[in-house]
Amino acid sequence: MSRTPPTVSSASDVLVVGGGIIGLVTAWRAAQRGLSVAVVDPEPGGGAAQVAAGMLAAVTELHYGEQTLLALNLASAHRYPDFAAELAEASGQDLGYRACGTLAVALDADDRAHLRELHALQRKSGLESEWLSGRDCRRLEPMLAPGVRGGLRVDGDHQIDPRRLASALVTACERAGVVLHRSSAERLSVVRDRACGLVLADGTQLAAEQVVLAAGSRSGQLAGVPDEVLPPVRPVKGQVLRLTVPRRHAPFLSRTIRAVVRGSHVYLVPRTNGELVVGATSEELGWDTTVTAGGVYELLRDAHELVPGITELPLTETRAGLRPGSPDNAPLLGPTTLPGLLLATGHYRNGVLLTPVTGDAMAHVLATGELPDEARPFTPKRFCAAGLQSLEQSA
Ligand code: GLY
Question: How far, in Å, is the centroid of ligand 1 from the Cα of 190?
């Protein structure tokens, strides 16, 4: 049997491993800076964005201890309107960006206490949110259950359709001259302690000045990356449902509704095209992407407690994806200790929200060698021995 000999393609300035939204936005923004860029992915535009609901929830997904991440989330949220307009123009596609706001509601006394604490933390962090009675919540969203005990109105947490975002980024990349290699990256090439390219699954060798590892939850799996540089990302499974609101039911919900029901997060994200996304489980089960009866049951049960009318709607899709979790729930952005290798991964629950700021930060560091100030706390070096030591010293 004859084998096609490996080919060495011409070198590019930047090679991006992973054509999900983070890899694509990195490639697009880097190409706009005049760098020659190639992306390696068997299915560019795939990945977690095909499952994600697309909430831009910097305020409603605030957590204790994540103030540094909050600053990055807010920076990205503020950039979204211009980013979406620019990308829509560059791709000729509508991204489904909706400045619709979010309502986080409580169903019982425990949920209410949890929301009150979130409200206090939001105020302490200088964020805008308004406490509403149950009656006021239902006035805003009449489909809510009569049992809703109160809620937080957050007019600044919007949404985008991640599938459209991914598709638009593929087109924008192509139009900006980014080369898409529809293949898998098999191994990082390292010569004299410097990353200098990739070997693809078909044996093709690609050379580059800089390689960006942006393979989502799989970023820790590329052969050839030295152990001490491999990003500490892990898959966190999320099951998500898609329902359809028939025209006769519209408007069903006018904004994103979310809640913590018996300790589990549930959200309902209504799109203008009638899609209603219900998410999401959070499961530490390795690489498993099975949609389970239990997962679907829990999501529907919790969503039904919030909005009983959903049982009337057709259930059109069930799917599971993998969030790239990191040890501190924040992304890893920028150079590693291996010269020539950079990371853009570990975005965990915030990949869609952080897409604009990640593109800007990565393009900046690729073009100048320096991470912009807003991205410095997210250097991958914070997880290596020297980085941990300097963090301990500054504590
Ligand atoms: N940000 C929503 C989720 O990860 O489920």
Answer: 35
Q: What residues have CB less than 8 Å from 8, skipping those under 6 apart?
A: 204, 205, 206, 207
Q: Cis check for the bond before 380: say yes or no (omega within 30 of 0).
A: no
Nearest in space to 156 (alpha carbons), one of 22, 87, 255: 255
Closest Cα to atom 2 of ligand 1:
349
* CA–CA gap between residue 353 and residue 66 (Å, rounded): 15
pLDDT digit string, tens, across residues 34-56: 999 999 999 999 999 999 999 99
Ligand 1 pocket test: which of 61, 322, 326, 347 has the largest number of ligand atoms within 8 Å of its C-beta?
61
Task: Split the chain (395 residues) into runs of 10 and give each run's mean pLDDT.
Answer: 53 97 98 98 97 97 92 98 98 97 94 93 95 97 95 97 98 98 97 97 96 98 96 98 89 94 90 96 97 98 96 97 97 98 98 98 98 97 70 49
pLDDT in tens, 308-348: 999 999 999 999 999 999 999 999 999 999 999 999 999 99
User: pTM above the 0.85 mark?
Assistant: yes
Place of tokens 């990082």: 188
Q: Please say whether the beta carbons of 245 and 270 come within 8 A.
A: yes
SS3 content of the chain, % helix, strand, coil (to 5): 35, 25, 35
CATH code of the region 102-155+235-325: 3.30.9.10
What's residue 100's pLDDT? Answer: 96
**How far apart are alpha carbons 92 and 179 in whole angstroms?**
19
Minimum-distance ligand 1 atom for the alpha carbon of 349 = 4
277, 299, 349: which to mutate for ligand 1, most atoms within 8 A of CB?
349
Cβ atoms < 10 Å from Cβ of 368: 10
Ligand 1 surroundings by CB, under 6 angstroms: 55, 61, 238, 279-280, 323, 349
Among the CATH numbers 1.20.1250.20, 3.50.50.60, 3.40.50.1370, 3.40.190.170, which is that of 12-50+164-232+327-394?
3.50.50.60
What is the C-alpha to C-alpha distance for residues 318 and 281, in angstroms, rounded to an integer?
12
**Domain range summary for the chain, segments of one domain joined by +:** 12-50+164-232+327-394, 102-155+235-325
pLDDT digits (tens, 9 = 90+) for 201-248: 999 999 999 999 999 999 999 999 999 999 999 999 999 999 999 988
